[in-house]
Design brief:
Rossmann fold, 6-stranded mixed sheet, 4-stranded parallel sheet, 13 helices, globular, binds zinc ion
């Protein structure tokens, strides 16, 4: 096997894997760990082992003696037969990432990122996050016993800060522009030897690729035609595509699903650039979305997502707040309660079927985070419960 390195997604400049710096020193585009082009699934691993033991051929750089797993990954892939029938699709699946230890897909990248930081001598970690990633890094930092720094938005409400603070990290609510904070955290991390495991650092991409590996296994290696992914910074999108490409190169699957980037209409820098046939994204300006988990106006992996969309015949689409709320309720009617960002793939499916997703296609929707993360949005639904006296019970049933 060739040496495993990091290379720039744009100019191919290479750096050592031990560097926890995530961006190219030449052109500032994100870095990728080398493609792992051979390997097989470790069927001796039990379902209670971490995902990176099951797929350890594809994580050859990890030190598996560092045991900080909280039981992330290996989430269900659930068929939505009613939706498939309604839209004349051959199958529709939900990859239910709400069932991770801190209720979002971020745990996959956190465990790999923290293991990598420990292996490379870091005793301090951190992240910049609007919510899901902050809670995830706080949890893994606690499990690993590392000093953990979490930068969140200055105006974040206590009901969102407290579920992060409960794990005991140093939480800093920083006033100022979020995308500037991302850059500054990486600089401070280098100066103070803190591994900032931000949204699209190479090890987060490595964590997310297991979503694709699991979809391959769970569909009996008959992978779907399309995979619809809520996209903010672009890290999860990149990871899922990389996972399919690696299994394809290793001969485990026969095709690479077409990736679909879905964004909120109120914050759609990648979809806008794609639909305008541009090669680079522009800052989206002021955002307005009911799904803040996909609310990054200047996604650090935006240009690389555009490159991947072109390379793998992908699609990009936006959905409105109304469509997101409707999709959240619909997903709940099948038993999956996701946060608004996790419902956008279902909303996108309704928009794309017929014209861009042909009948009889198979589709997987990636549902990214749990609904209790953002209970304030429940006020947008018409939900009620009836108050009655105990003596009235039998009349009401
Ligand atoms: Zn570069």
């Amino acid at each position: 096997m060739n040496e495993i390195i990091q290379s720039c997604t744009s100019c191919n400049h290479t750096t050592n894997l031990a560097e926890c710096y995530p961006r190219c020193p030449i052109c500032n585009e994100p870095l990728n760990v080398s493609l792992i082009e051979s390997g097989s699934i470790n069927y001796e691993a039990t379902w209670s082992d971490p995902f990176y033991i099951r797929y350890r051929d594809f994580y050859p750089y990890l030190d598996n003696t560092i045991k900080i797993s909280l039981g992330e990954g290996l989430t269900p892939l659930m068929p939505l037969e009613n939706v498939a029938k309604e839209l004349n699709l051959s199958s529709v699946y939900v990859k239910n990432e709400t069932l991770n230890p801190t209720w979002s897909f971020k745990d996959r990248g956190s465990v790999i990122g923290v293991m990598h930081a420990i292996k490379n001598g870091y005793s301090k970690i951190g992240t910049v996050s609007t919510g899901n990633m902050a809670a995830s890094i706080a949890a893994y930092g606690a499990k690993a016993g590392l000093k953990t720094y979490i930068f969140v938005k200055g105006d974040m409400l206590p009901e969102k800060v407290n579920p992060i603070a409960i794990y005991g990290p140093k939480v800093l609510q920083v006033k100022g522009e979020y995308s500037v904070l991302y850059e500054q955290s990486l600089q401070i991390g280098q100066e103070k030897h803190i591994a900032f495991i931000n949204s699209d650092v190479p090890m987060r991409i490595e964590g997310s690729k297991s979503i694709a590996y699991e979809i391959c296994e769970q569909t009996g290696f008959n992978v779907p035609d399309f995979v619809i992914i809520p996209t903010s910074a672009g890290g999860n999108f990149r990871g899922i595509v990389k996972g399919f490409v690696e299994f394809y190169k290793a001969g485990i699957i026969k095709k690479i699903p077409r990736p679909v980037c879905v964004q909120s209409a109120g914050c759609a820098p990648i979809a806008k650039a794609f639909l305008n046939n541009e090669d680079t994204i522009s800052h989206f300006g002021n955002t307005s979305t009911i799904a803040p988990a996909i609310g990054n106006p200047n996604p650090p992996s935006g240009n690389e997502v555009l490159r991947l969309l072109k390379r793998y015949l992908g699609l990009a689409v936006t959905v409105t707040n109304c469509e997101i709320i409707k999709a959240q309720k619909q997903l709940a009617s099948y038993g999956v309660f996701s946060q608004p960002a996790g419902a956008v793939p279902l909303a996108a499916l309704y928009k794309l079927t017929d014209e861009l997703i042909p009948h009889d296609s198979s589709v997987a929707l990636v549902t990214t985070g749990g609904g209790l993360k953002d209970s304030s949005v429940l006020g947008k639904h018409k939900l009620d419960a009836e108050v009655i006296n105990i003596s009235e019970l039998s009349y009401k049933l």
